[in-house]
Write a structure and sequence with these properties.
Elements: H1 2-36, H2 40-79, H3 81-108, H4 110-117, H5 125-138, H6 141-157, H7 162-182, H8 191-214, H9 228-243, H10 246-258, H11 265-300, H12 304-331, H13 333-340, H14 348-362, H15 365-380, H16 385-406, H17 417-429, H18 436-462, H19 467-493, H20 504-528, H21 532-547
Helix pairs in contact: 1-7, 1-11, 1-12, 1-21, 2-3, 2-5, 2-6, 2-9, 2-10, 2-11, 3-6, 4-5, 6-8, 7-8, 9-16, 10-11, 10-16, 10-18, 11-12, 11-14, 11-15, 12-14, 12-15, 12-19, 12-21, 13-14, 14-18, 15-18, 16-17, 16-18, 19-20
Length: 552
């Protein structure tokens, strides 16, 4: 169980610094909500940021990291650090050239990209033009953050997790600083957010360089592009671009469809998705980031019993943490938005509509968290095709459910083909009228489908994986989470969270009381019912506090 201990310690380091980045990210979103709320300019920024952000997930976390770490780890274990460093230089050089070309193409084709991803904006030329400008402004972010992902792959493979996990803090601080300093000086204040994104990308890359140098890696370009290691990476990258980013693709589809809904719908989904990413980032991404190098090492050594044990341990922790977090987010959705966001341009109506989106997004937290752990198993085994096929069917499911759940939409007669296509499909398939909340629910269902199918395939691949134990763990923790939620619902419903007379101090104290009560009640139930996950979580937490600042 040595690798389980390493995974736990690494997850603790990543989790701590990811928590720091999520806290600054929450502050960033509060500032954005205060300055821009859910106005048309906010919709324009969120859509423009989605376009390069999706490509970031595909080229960075999705393909480069998932494909690079198994290749680099295999080279590191079997050929030594010097050879691994040489391979890394080749891949860095190739990636820099590829990303430069991709950035130039994105800037040049910003208009058709915006028409594709925001068909509903075409009817409002002011919003459309602003979205195009912001897309061009932020597209170079892909270059910087994708190189950060490669640096993260090297450092994580060497079991250094601090610098990569800390780098998003710099992005958040850059956006906050630019919004506060420059928004009042610009004709279009929201453009200040675009400058913050660019500055944040540069800062994230600069943070990684000293740590790479400390591990003996130089930055001299190497153009030996016929090296087998690069070929192996490219073979893995293609399918991985879809497989690792299925959730982001689904969110992007929701964004596209949301542009056809009333103004503000894109913003409601953005704010809700950002709050959902708080628990996903602190726990699920922390475990997933730590798991990929651990799983890759175990596969390279052919230690499959240890691999099964590590995955089982991590998935039971997913049950223990994500299920109460799901119920907690659903119950506390209105109080969260009321306390943290409802001020300035973020009014009571925006609070209620964003909270509604968060409730439906929260239903997918379990599936999203589980997928973050299961997908690295396939990448560790250098199988990127299976996640692609599962991701493809999840995408189709998400699209169909979105059209069914969001309701019928309309568009001006002179709109483009994507808009008319969406209108025609919604006329035929729109059985419900949940609006933007329907899009959130569709994303949650498809994410859960993606996780369950991948888990069943892993069960067959690994053999003797304790699938029954996992589902018993799920039912046990779901029962405890439901018991926890009942008194919280009563307290939340007894308070007027969005009224104009609400007291920030009083409501903040009530919020803190509910949070402490919910956590205490859930832990007490787990202890009294002798939950096996209680012991695992206690050990997990103890190792986090012990090794929080250790990176090796």
């Amino acid at each position: 169980m040595e690798e389980v201990g390493r995974l736990t310690r690494a997850a603790g380091v990543v989790g701590f610094f990811t928590l720091l980045s999520r806290i600054t990210g929450l502050l960033r979103d509060v500032v954005m909500g205060y300055l821009f709320g859910a106005k048309g300019s906010a919709d324009a920024f969120f859509v423009a940021f989605r376009i390069p952000n999706l490509l970031r997930r595909l080229t960075a976390e999705g393909a480069l990291t998932a494909g690079f770490i198994p290749v680099f780890t295999d080279c590191l274990i079997n050929q030594g650090k010097d050879e691994a460093a040489r391979v890394a230089r080749i891949i860095f050089t190739f990636a820099a050239l590829f990303l430069t070309a991709l950035t130039l193409l994105g800037v040049f084709f910003a208009v058709p990209l915006t028409r594709l991803f925001a068909p509903g904006f075409w009817a409002d030329q002011g919003k459309f033009t602003l979205t195009v400008f912001l897309t061009r402004l932020m597209f170079p972010y892909i270059f910087f953050v994708s190189l950060v992902a490669l640096a993260m792959g090297v450092l994580n493979s060497l079991r250094h997790f601090m610098a990569p996990a800390l780098s998003p803090v710099l992005l958040n601080l850059s956006i906050i600083a630019c919004a506060l300093l420059f928004s009042s000086l610009l004709d279009q204040p929201v453009i200040s957010l675009g400058y913050g994104v660019l500055l944040g990308g540069v800062a994230q890359l600069l943070l990684q360089l000293p740590y790479l140098s400390r591990h003996g890696f130089s930055y001299a370009p190497d153009f030996h592009f016929r090296d087998p290691a690069l070929k192996g990476l490219l073979v893995l990258m293609g399918p991985a671009m879809i497989g690792a980013a299925v959730y982001q693709i689904n969110v992007l589809v929701s964004t596209m469809l949301a542009t056809m809904l009333p103004s503000g719908s894109v913003s409601y989904l953005y704010y809700a998705d950002r709050l959902l990413e708080f628990p996903v980032g602190v726990f699920a991404i922390a475990l997933g980031t730590a798991a990929l190098p651990s799983f890759s090492s175990l596969v390279a050594k052919k230690e499959f019993a240890e691999l099964r044990a590590g995955l089982s341990y991590a998935l039971r922790l997913v049950n223990f943490i994500s299920l109460p977090a799901t119920l907690g987010l659903m119950v506390m959705s209105v109080p969260i938005f009321s306390l943290f966001f409802q001020r300035g341009a973020f009014d009571a109506d925006t609070t209620l509509k964003s909270a509604r989106a968060l409730i439906y997004f929260s239903l997918g937290l379990w599936g999203i968290s589980g997928t973050k752990l299961v997908v690295p198993i396939f990448y560790a085994m250098k199988d990127t095709k299976t996640p692609v096929w599962v991701a493809f069917w999840s995408f189709i499911l998400n699209l169909l459910l979105s059209l069914i759940l969001m309701g019928k939409v309309s568009a001006e007669p002179n709109t483009d083909i994507p808009s008319r296509t969406i209108v025609a499909l919604s006329e035929r398939l729109g059985l419900f009228s949940l609006s933007h909340a329907g899009l959130a629910l569709a994303t949650s269902i498809s994410s859960t489908f993606n996780f369950l199918v991948l888990l069943l395939i892993i069960h067959r691949r690994l053999g003797r994986f304790p699938l029954g134990e996992f589902f018993l763990s799920f039912l046990r923790n779901l029962f405890n989470a439901l018991l926890m939620a009942l008194p919280l619902i009563f307290i939340v419903w007894s308070v007027d969270w969005v009224g104009s007379e609400k007291s920030l101090l009083t409501h903040g104290a009530i919020f803190l009381l509910i949070l402490i009560l919910g956590i205490s009640l859930y832990l007490a139930l787990s202890f009294l019912l002798r939950s096996s996950e209680w012991q695992a979580a206690r050990d997990f937490g103890g190792k986090i506090f012990k090794d929080m600042f250790v990176s090796s």
